[in-house]
Amino acid sequence: MGKTKAQALRDSVIAQMIQYEEQLRMAGMNVEADQIADKIKEYMKGLFSVMFTGGFSAGKSTTLNAMMRQPLLTVSINPETPVITKIVNGEDSDKAVIKYRDTDRPDEIIPLSEFGEKYRLEFQNEEKFTEVSYVELKRRLRNPTVIFVDSPGLGNTTTDDKTAGDFAKKADAIVFMMHATQAMDQKAKEYVEKNFRRRQLKNVFFVVNWYNMVQEQDEDSFREKLRHDLEDVFTDDDGNFDQKLYDSRVFCIDALTSFCARTGIPKRERKGIIYIDKEVKPEEDAYTGVPEFEKALYEFLGADDRDIAGYKGFMPRMAGMLGSTSDHMAEILELGKSKVEELESKKEKQQAAIDEIIRNLDGMNQALDMGMREMLVNVQSAYQNFLTSSENNWDDYFKGKKIDFGILDEGKIFALKAKYRIQDIFDPEGADQMARDKEFERLMRPIIELVEAYIQSEVEKMVNKIIVNSEPVIQRLVSQLQGYAENIKSVKLDGFDFQKLVADVVAAGQRGTESAAKRIRTKTEGATDPVSGDMSIIQALISGALLFNFDDMITTGVEGKKPWGTFIKENLMKEMGDYILAFVVASIFPPAWIYYAARAIWGIISLRKNASGIGNQIILGMKGATVQSIADSKEEITMKIEAAFEQELVYKSGELTGAIELEMRQKQKQLQDLIDDIRSGQFDYDEKAALFEKIKKDMVLCFNKISELLGDKTYSEEEILTYAIQK
Fold this sequence. Notes:
globular; 14 strands; Rossmann fold
């Protein structure tokens, strides 16, 4: 039997990629060669990776669990997934296989029941996570060639996680998930603008989870805004919007209900100040939006052009490899003009300098670790004050905020209470039923908005207190980092451009990832924009210290020019405030407040007794349950804040400095290889120059052959390097 068209295409693409890998190895670019070799292995097996990415708690793991129809991945409102987790086809296994970055280290096989506990975001375990390449779970999959990938969350906590970013570059398809309460917020818009604008990519799905939290009266405006925000993604350069592609790639779902309906596991819901388990019937899955998303995804995975979309998704990475290889070969040729003795001396001096730099990088990480722990003490203290303040200020705050219901609405409230009071006789859940009534929800909206505004105002007070108390810590931290950076800058690196190396690491690590802080740019001698990508605020903190002129900081937007320390202090404290505000406000969903309002009405003997004060009576009646609910959430919220701080400060700083250290060690190895070649007589400058030129030409040729196979045009070397940035 002859090959199918898809098989023939795959074989042709693989043949060119193998040649590309060979050229990389000839140039000494073994790290990049290993990356493309891994991709070739996937293609040879006919495998296709689908990566679920997006903000933490957007529902990536829950959605995958629903698709697998079992609780395979750990889920929580906390950021739970700290490592890449692959679900591959195979016999169902109750084991998790831990694959380490050190390929000489044997795999660790642990029970699946232990995986959720052992690999989750907790304190003092970042070392464990950085050692892990990925975790593999086996399940019988509907499409055996597919690999589903669950990633660490992006966005406010881990948006530009380098590990997730690296996998996203290699993924054949991406499911970008968003929480309905944060769908297409500023950070998501920046991510989409950077990665998907004007590309009409068929291998990218946008999924809004928790859509059940969108109020019925707001659904039309929500969907209209979503379409507007994603319009550029599905519009070509000629301004043509592809409605059909949009409809097959954008979905709104309720993943938790789907998971419960498919597994029979009860849905845990808040009722008043406690949680209850509610049974979800299998037929309710039909209303969650998950079946429609699943159908579209599997149709794409079974389509003839699926592989083409995947190949195109890897092309920007190949383009980036050409740029790195070109820079490396130019550097080798320049060094090749030196004598062995000069190179040996250079290597010794560089090794001593690298050791000193690594010592200071370690100092940076230790300073961040200590600073984080001091700030968390302030969080704990301020939260307790927040609880007391929320209760003590409640009456005074609402005293001057009167809500009058009209006669008609007052009558509706009274009728609803009467209706559900009668039902309560037969089914003692009358208040709960009334809280779910759409008409009651509409009537209570002004009250709920007032309560939400009050809680937010109290949270903002707490945040301000934390910021004030943490300012000395952050000031000291900024000073310490600046000191370590000055030490590093004073180190003499003969023939070794450390700042360019750092800029390359930052640019490579950030490309294609979502921003967790504002994009920053610098104006330095010889480098107008050394940081080309978005980064977390902590990575901006470190890379800024290593790259920037401290008194000549240029920021985007309206901030203008300000000293580096001021910029970092302001933004780091703002980042802290954003975390805390988001976690506390998200801990009490609107349905809970509506239930508290229903309970408050249940306690009012006669709504008509004091018609003009109904609104205030309801609000006063809500105080106890609302404050108690926030108090009950204290441990949960502070754990989330701690996990976010550790991920954002300690883990991400170690990730960046570790990548810098690795690059320095690789540079030393390349220098040693050059010395060995010269010493053994294997280095001839003219021959090496000719070889390098041929390598570049062959890489350009391979790239263009793949491009033609995929129906695209051919590119010059310069155009390929531009392609790497634009795509």
